[in-house]
Specification:
UDP-N-acetylmuramoyl-L-alanine:D-glutamate ligase; Protein-Tyrosine Phosphatase, Chain A; 35% helix; 17% strand
């Protein structure tokens, strides 16, 4: 089988429709495959924001300590292959096609079992388990796709779990922080250890109740571990982390923002918990310097400065805004925005608008993308900021000509750094 054919068959499972969330299909699928996800220990990473960065930190550290570590993340930027890595090796096209050919007959069996067809995410998740088991690996770092309790990844053993910051995001998970926390806390299993980022009180109460129910041990940020020092540096930041077993000094993290620093600290503690010992200090410093998190405050060009970020909810947008202001300077900021249709578009616009001199509404290639027109309408509905902000149109779809672009006001007199913005 060719890689292109495998991807075409996978893509045919989009868009995903799940009448009732649950683990029935993935459980049936991995049963047919002889439970490949149980052939290696796992660190299961959940939360609303920060999952990918945390998972990449854990993986890079584990590989630095000479543990063959499989990393499963989502979504991808360009190719589905980006979701599956072993240390710094992305699954090849040939291996992806081979694993898909192995998987395909079992997908057909489950498709016909009366539970509905296997979804895109369930299929890729099962393929990742197969690839990791075939290599084999000594540790799997598995990022939750959405939620936790009924996410397809929640068939892993999850000896260690990480719960990053919890906020509102996917409406399917609930309308309150407590509802969302209940779903995220579903990754906690009997007798496991969980590394918990600082949470809102209502989320922490739910996590603690779940931990008590299943006998899980919680390692809570600020109580059991902490990012105790942070200093901006060229190309990143220098950290001091108090872990569970040791304190780690002079750690250079080549990613920006306080949230990235705290997620890196959580990653260090998660690997400590998995190994049940302190990490080797010099190896930890060397490995952390190699961490990369594509699409997260990702500098893609210097002249002009182009930064990509996957912030997709108001809390993520707030973290992005803070990190941009802390890390970069600019004369004019052009914001290009594409958003999935099920996201809080108004909340994203409200959070990011004060930064932008000009914004461009567009869409991405995902079947879940909101239209450029919807994004433009959200900017237009916001109008100018208090104290002014009218004027000629400054937001449009960059795929259009200027005459066709939808118009919304520029934020011409929103103060930033003590001076007014100018309009082009």
């Amino acid at each position: 089988m060719r890689f292109e054919d495998a991807v075409a068959e996978l893509n045919a499972r989009q868009p995903e429709h799940m009448p009732e969330p649950g683990l029935e299909r993935i459980r049936e699928l991995v049963k047919y495959l002889d439970d490949p996800q149980l052939t290696f220990p796992t660190i299961h990473v959940a939360g609303t924001n920060g999952k990918s960065t945390t998972a990449r930190v854990v993986t890079t550290l584990a590989c630095g300590h000479e543990i063959a570590t499989g990393l499963y993340t989502s979504p991808h930027l360009r190719s589905v292959r980006e979701r599956l890595m072993i240390c710094d090796e992305t699954i090849s096209e040939r291996e992806f096609a081979q694993e898909w050919e192995h998987l395909a007959p079992f997908l057909e069996l489950v498709d016909g079992a009366g539970m509905g067809p296997v979804t895109y995410f369930e299929a890729v998740t099962a393929l990742s388990f197969l690839w990791f088991a075939d290599k084999p690996i000594g540790l799997g770092v598995i990022e939750v796709g959405m939620g936790g309790g009924w996410d397809a990844t929640n068939v892993v053993s999850g000896e260690v779990a990480v719960i990053c910051e919890i906020g509102l995001d996917h409406p399917e998970l609930g309308s309150t922080i407590a509802d969302v926390a209940g779903e995220k806390a579903g990754v906690l299993k009997h007798g496991t250890t969980a590394v918990i980022r600082e949470q809102r009180p209502e989320a922490m109460a739910v996590i603690e109740a779940r931990a008590a129910e299943v006998g899980a041990t919680l390692l809570i940020e600020g109580r059991d571990w902490a990012m105790e020092g942070r200093m901006s540096g060229v190309g990143g930041q220098v950290l001091r982390v108090r872990g569970r077993h040791a304190t780690y000094e002079d750690l250079f993290l080549p990613i920006f923002g306080v949230y990235a620093a705290r997620n890196a600290a959580a990653g260090i503690v998660a690997l400590e918990a998995s190994l049940e010992q302190e990490l080797e200090a010099e190896t930890t410093r060397d490995a952390l310097r190699e961490v990369r998190s594509p699409g997260r405050l990702d500098v893609r060009s210097r002249k002009p400065l182009v930064v990509l970020d996957g912030a997709h909810n108001p809390a993520g947008a707030a973290a992005l805004a803070a990190a941009l202001a802390e890390t970069f300077t600019w004369e004019r900021l052009h914001l290009v925005m594409a958003v999935s249709a099920n996201k809080d578009l108004e909340g994203l616009v409200r959070t990011l608008a004060p930064l932008a001199d000009v914004a461009y509404a567009t869409a991405n290639d995902s079947v879940r993308s909101a239209s450029a027109e919807d994004v433009a309408r959200a900017w237009g509905a916001r109008g100018g900021p208090p104290g002014g902000g009218g004027g000629g149109g400054g937001v449009g779809d960059p795929r259009r000509t200027g005459a066709q672009a939808p118009k919304i006001p520029r934020f011409c007199d929103t103060p930033r750094r003590g001076r007014p913005l100018g309009c082009a």
